[in-house]
Amino acid sequence: EKVIYISRHGQSEMNVKDIIGGNGYLSPSGVEYGEKLGDFIANHIDQEKTRFVTSSMNRTRQTAKLAGLDPDQINDLDEIDAGDFDGLSYGEVKCRYPSEYEARKADKLNYRYPNGESYVDLLKRTRRAIQNVDFESCDNFLIIHQAVARCLIGILLGLSDEKVPQMEVPLHTVIKIQGSEITYHKLL
Ligand code: G3H
């Protein structure tokens, strides 16, 4: 059975400030992770039989570059679109748009950001990305985003959609999925 490796990008400038969305670059700690990821791949991954994939965003591409990779880019793996809230911090949303904040908390799966996406939308987009990647033809190593990783793991493991938005996907950790088996390699 083919192996699928999933990593979030290294910690980004937005992660540090608790900002939703954006298209920024990595923090110093995120840069360190990119380098560590390169070592992990050199030591554990057969690069001949592995396809490397990122989203089209700066933080995943920077992570791949630091790891010495030249991956394919798939727009359908970009992070959930926070619409009008892109670039705000979670604290700002809570204080300026309390009813939106509460609506999301009450139903994170179905809640759609104003002019943006919901997890239901993102699940659809992630399924489309998977179909285009054809996971059975070789091993795959994806450098993506937290919300997309939640969707992908949920789809691969056959979890219920309700579980997807709540899943914990840690930074600086390579996740390996083979069949129904999932293992975590914390690098930093
Ligand atoms: O910035 C987007 C986050 O990776 C998604 O987190 O859906 O839990 O707000 P959230």
TrEMBL record:
SMART domains: PGAM. The keyword Membrane does not apply. CDD domains: HP. The keyword Cell membrane does not apply. Pfam families: His_Phos_1. Keywords: Multifunctional enzyme. Signal peptide: none annotated. Coiled coil: none annotated. In the C-terminal section; belongs to the phosphoglycerate mutase family. PANTHER family: 6-PHOSPHOFRUCTO-2-KINASE/FRUCTOSE-2,6-BISPHOSPHATASE. This is Oidioi.mRNA.OKI2018_I69.XSR.g13638.t1.cds. It comes from Oikopleura dioica.
